[in-house]
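2 proteins. here.
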Amino acid sequence: MKRKLTFFANAIRKWHNFITYIGRTPKHLAQMTTVLQNTYSGEPTVILIVGNLTRWSSDYKSLKRALHIKADISRCIATAIRAN
């Protein structure tokens, strides 16, 4: 059981670090926003959700959104890797 909880804690930590990295510079945020806007042009604005200690369900919502836009996140990461 402890191993399973550690796995989930690490997944949440990695996701939080990714969102922090994207939001750290306007360039990264603009790239991610562009990818999301191109993919979800007909839908309401799709943004990344950051988990927060004061909102109990924020990590759940953040990971749920991440799974929804998983392919776009992968595309954005691949673009950033090619650019470097």
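next one coming up
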Amino acid sequence: METEYKYICECGDCSYKSNHLGNFKNHQSNKHDYSREWNLCKECNLRFTNYQALISHTSKYHASPEELQRRKNLRSARNKRYRDSH
């Protein structure tokens, strides 16, 4: 049996819907508040409310192939040290 939800809040800027006013207000503030200063990703134009979130996003999704290989090598070395010590 499928439950049908009655949404009390529907965003006029996107398809977001919520039946909790607090969640809707958070959505509006975090996604559509154009008066605040945003940290903008230069690669894909995503907006972040804080600089650390932008740095995390950039290193995860826009790292160079060399950086990705370096991380892979570090993980391999850590895993080898762990296996050797147990």
